[in-house]
Amino acid sequence: MSFNNVSFWFDTCPEQIKSRPALTQDIEVDVAIIGAGYTGLWTAYYLKQQQPELSIAIVEAETAGFGASGRNGGWLMGAMSGEGKYLEKLPEEDKRTGFDLLFGIIDEVHTVTTREDIDCDLHRGGAIYAAARYPEQIEFMQDYLRHQHQLGLTEEDYRWLSRGELEQKIRIRNGYGGVYTPHCGVINPAKLARGLARCVESKGVQIFEQSPVQTVDNRCLKTAQGSIKANVIVPATEGFSAELMDIKKYVLPVQSLIIATEPLDSAQWAEIGLDQRPAFSDAGRLTTYGQRSADGRMIFGARGGYIFGGKVRHQFSLQDPEFRLRETLLRDLFPSLQNTRITHGWGGTLGMARDMSPFALFDPATGIASAGGYGGEGVGASNLFGRTLADLILQRDSDLTRMPWAFQPSTHRQALKRWEPEPFRWLTYKAILQCFSWEDDLYSKQSAAAWRKKLAGMLCSKLSLLIE
Ligand SMILES: Cc1cc2nc3c(=O)[nH]c(=O)nc-3n(C[C@H](O)[C@H](O)[C@H](O)COP(=O)(O)OP(=O)(O)OC[C@H]3O[C@@H](n4cnc5c(N)ncnc54)[C@H](O)[C@@H]3O)c2cc1C
Q1: What would the pLDDT profile of 270-304 be if each residue is shown by its tens digit?
Q2: N or C: which end of the chain has fewer CB within 10 A?
Q3: Considering only CA atoms, which residue is closest to atom 52 of ligand 1?
Q4: Which of 105, 9, 116 is nearest to 64 (CA)?
Q5: Does the Cβ of 288 fall within 6 Å of ligand 1?
Q6: Of 280, 335, 236, whose CA–CA distance to 35 is shortest?
Q7: CATH topology for 8-72+189-249+355-415?
Q8: What is the dihedral sign for C-alpha 439, 444, 449, 454?
Q9: Which CATH architecture has domain 123-187+253-353?
Q10: Helix (H, G, I), strand (E, B), or coil: what is residue 170?
Q11: Which atom of ligand 1 is nearest to the CA of 289?
Q12: What is the pLDDT of residues 235-269, one digit of tens each?
């Protein structure tokens, strides 16, 4: 099986990527994990760290990092989708603990990857969260900043960049300003996933690949050629959950697509900036994300579609028309890249929880533990949730298990909110995306009437609430 076209990141892995052997027998372990992405791998890592004698097996449909973990934009965020909603209700002290846990993710990943000799090109350059390209977006971004400060965060955590300050960090066409945070780094995602897999394996975790799990029932999972009985089973399948068990009602599979340019020369980088390699996004509602890779390429992505019925898309090719939208957005942001070659285009599937709030849960009665619904912000969050799942499974009372995103059996219903049935789900998603594109289009036209721009902004803000 060749994994050459998975992502640009897969192509940069030093090893030749080959599958590990499949599960071909019936075995018994303490913990069986489904999926060798970050969630499954970090959970195995922290379980082994706390209780080395545990027997753990990971069963993966393809190969480690084949899912979103080996394909993402590489933003290692000290933040997560839905954090405000979770934390705003807490007393001040607990809220501070929550933010410290989130901000501490980058230190934690740095510490573990250094200790375990996992080279994932981790670089801590912060992030420019949403540079405003149209005057109308300034208010929207400043509202976001005000909200962060109302939650108790300071200028040290999130601060406004004036037009001049933005220009010193990144030179985009018509950059009006943006929000800067130091709480972010960038990584090579596939190197982290592949390195973590090697690391847990060296600690005694068994990994079976090319072994899609077909059923999970009564503490037993089955693949085509084997089975595993376990006290605890951890579905860690995130965007693929639609294909497994009951989780599909709660986690929507959404595609995101990325392009990579050829390596840029120093004159091109001098024009663009990004000297400290911060991650960056623009303030459009289509959720764009980019980074300057360790080998000097521009990596740039944007959230994509949802397929009717929650089908997971497995094939992506640079020739697909959706990649042209990313290319146009990139060349519009950075006019100096007009003639730069796009060498790679790939996509992946992420999992969106109904209220955009990820969850970690464990039910000792059924032995099922799971985490996901990161909504495209799971690179860092999966580390935090892997630690949380380990504590939940070992039934430890800790700061992690006391966080509102760690659900006990009595609160599982609050964790898992159902998506609407089809066709409403598909129609809602389509309508929201159309409206976001309409808003972007209006903002880009100087001749468009101010009232139309205002109306579009108001409508999009209201529609955004539908997916919160
Ligand atoms: C294009 C893209 C860009 C993104 N950019 C960012 C970013 O810059 N920053 C950020 O924070 N987040 C980003 N994300 C989200 C982030 O990558 C994910 O939230 C994170 O990787 C989820 O990890 P996971 O282990 O939970 O899931 P995955 O990495 O998707 O792993 C799930 C694994 O389960 C396996 N599997 C599925 N079904 C079965 C089965 N039946 N049996 C066995 N195995 C199975 C899959 O093959 C897969 O390997 C992005 C996602 C995508 C798709």
Answers
A1: 999 999 999 999 888 777 899 999 999 999 999 87
A2: N
A3: 72
A4: 9
A5: no
A6: 236
A7: FAD/NAD(P)-binding domain (3.50.50)
A8: positive
A9: 2-Layer Sandwich (3.30)
A10: strand
A11: 8
A12: 999 988 766 666 667 888 999 999 999 999 999 99
